[in-house]
Amino acid sequence: MFASGVRGATRIHSGCYVRGFWWGVRIYFTSNAAVNWFRSELSTASGVTTIVGMVAQVTGHEIAGTLSDALGAYTDSTSNRLANFNRSHRHSKIYMDAPNISFHTF
Known about the structure:
Strand order of the largest sheet: 3-4-5-6
Strand content: 15-25%
Number of helices: 2
Order of helices and strands: EEEEEHHE
Radius of gyration: 16 Å
Structural class: alpha+beta
Distance between the termini: 23 Å
Helix content: 40-55%
Low-confidence stretches: none
Mean pLDDT: 88
Shape: elongated
């Protein structure tokens, strides 16, 4: 499949494509609007993990609450790093790698 210059990738949103590899996934962004959309999705995920973390803490599930807090912090960090990377690169296309067992890279 050839999708807007991203060979082998699947379109998940206008200007945003994903391709799976044995080591994880690579997310391609072909527009600033796609980066902003993905950051919005990360923000939503962070909000959900915050609510889950609060409920877990209140119901006595401290470990689940801590894990939810950590996931929320990770998604916030990913969003901020993606925005910074996008601002610093003037290419027509950027990508972010999300390995299966480690942190994202650009």
